[in-house]
Here is the input.
Amino acid sequence: MKTDFIKIILAVSRPFNSFKIKFPLASFIVSRITTMAVILFLLGWALFALMALAPGDIVDQMMTQQLMSQTQSSPSAQGNTNDKAFDEEQMARLRAEMGLDQSFSVQYFKWLKRVLVNHDLGTSLISRAPVSFLIKTRIINSIILNLISLVFITLFSFLLGVYFSSKAGTKTDIAATFFALFFHAFPGILLLILFQLFASATSLFPVTAYPDFPFSDAPVKFTFSYTYHVFLPLLASFLGGIGGTMRTIRSTMLDQMGMPYIMALRARGISERRVYLNHAFRNTLNPYITGSANLLAGLFSGSLVLEIIFSYPGIGRLMYEAVMQQDVNLVLANSMFISALVLIGMVISDILLALVDPRIRYGKE
Here is the structure.
């Protein structure tokens, strides 16, 4: 009986093994996408559980706001409005309409079915607007902000890392290492607050990170205004991210320069420029590509604080407002969308690593 069971398992797994041997990279991509889907499923379930464990719900907030507005408009009617605002039957009816009277597991599977079958993220419980519309209007701003930051961090990290690796041990290298460690260890939220205080005190830069008119009104003017508004937040993100990345590239370059193949290249009379750029530099790509997904995830998580402090209309600020208002549909859609972007970035980084480094052979012993 046990032998038959083993034979069945081997027969079922044989097509997958042959596919893995013939197409190792494709097999790796499929496995990572499958893992990403499982992680997203568990993440969504955990988010619903956390929202269910939070004290109160959105109905309590709505009733409290109704009580406060009625009390402010008619203070003498406070005793009467208490009964109206906190009527248990009315609250139970609202919870039933929103589906909040069911367990979080049932709510999650209903949401998942609606997303996968109907391609509908639902509506916001607060604004009653489609969640997909709210995310679409904010996610573009966050992606633009984080991509600009990632490009500048990558470009200057490689330039400075390679340059200072050639100056190892000098006073310039020691000073650069000190400042890199300083800004890497400096709290990002404090740096953002200091920059906003600087903008407020000097009036050289705006205290908000987004123009007060849309792109469609004047595209050219908006581009220049956007650059001006976003300069200080981008500078804070750049200073916080370049320190660790530059030190990683510098240390990797120094490790490569001590390898035997570098000594052999120098012994053959190859110029130092070619040794640095054509040989040692190429091998520094591996650790950066591996860590680039984590850097992108850090930028997205860090942009939450940036968007709140500088009033930037991005997905992080939308997420913060949704959590504070306990808008379950909006919180879940935001979290799943950002998590999917980060996981996709990790898959892309692994694929690029396999393409850049010919020594990596996925699926081969």
